[in-house]
Amino acid sequence: MEHYRQDDELLWRRFQRGDVEAFTQIVDKYSDVLYDYGVRFSKDSELIKDCIQDIFYVLWNRKENLSEVRSVKFYLMKSLRQKVIREIPKWAQSTPLEQIYDETNFQLNIEIEQESPISPEAQQKFLSYIASLAPRQKELLYLRFYQGLKQDKIAELMQLNRQSVYNLQRSALSALRKVVDYEAVVALMYSIIFLLFLNMYE
């Protein structure tokens, strides 16, 4: 992880100096990450693509005035979140209401592999529980366990204080322990989903 971060910091410094190749690497590396994050807020893929394109366009044109960043991914995800919110009024007149960004409708779709040792019944309980979570809990779990952001970064990104982030995570995962029985929890050890339990109090 440390080596990964240093690579990003080096890419960022090269990009700031006008290195086109470094900028292209940043775009290639994070375009999919940004799109995956954006479409969880909006069904309108064109809105999300437009926002991502604008972010990279502004980034290149302001490169000399940008400060150093420790996490390029976090910087870009935060920029996208803010950008989409600002774009709502511009798209509202031509886009169906249900497709426009809605912070209260974050989608967290989890796919369990067919060879998973989790029983079908336990899988259904788990997926039903995830679907019942509050939108902010879904976004928090996505940022924490899919994107690997720490609580302080999640708090900054979602504009919450760190205690609120901790409370949201703990309430979501504590309730999950009650929904999925012990046998299923043991099976989850062999699945990526078990990361939810391993990282619960980090």
Automatic annotation (TrEMBL):
Gene3D superfamilies named in the record: 1.10.1740.10, Winged helix-like DNA-binding domain superfamily/Winged helix DNA-binding domain (1.10.10.10)
InterPro entries: RNA_pol_sigma-70-like, RNA_pol_sigma-70_dom, RNA_pol_sigma70_r4, RNA_pol_sigma_r2, RNA_pol_sigma_r3/r4-like, WH-like_DNA-bd_sf
Keywords per UniProt: Membrane, Sigma factor, Transcription, Transcription regulation, Transmembrane, Transmembrane helix
Keyword check for Glycoprotein: no
Record-annotated membrane-spanning stretches: 179-201
Occurrences of domain RNA polymerase sigma-70 region (ranges): 130-178
Family: Belongs to the sigma-70 factor family. ECF subfamily.
Protein name listed in UniProt: Sigma-70 family RNA polymerase sigma factor
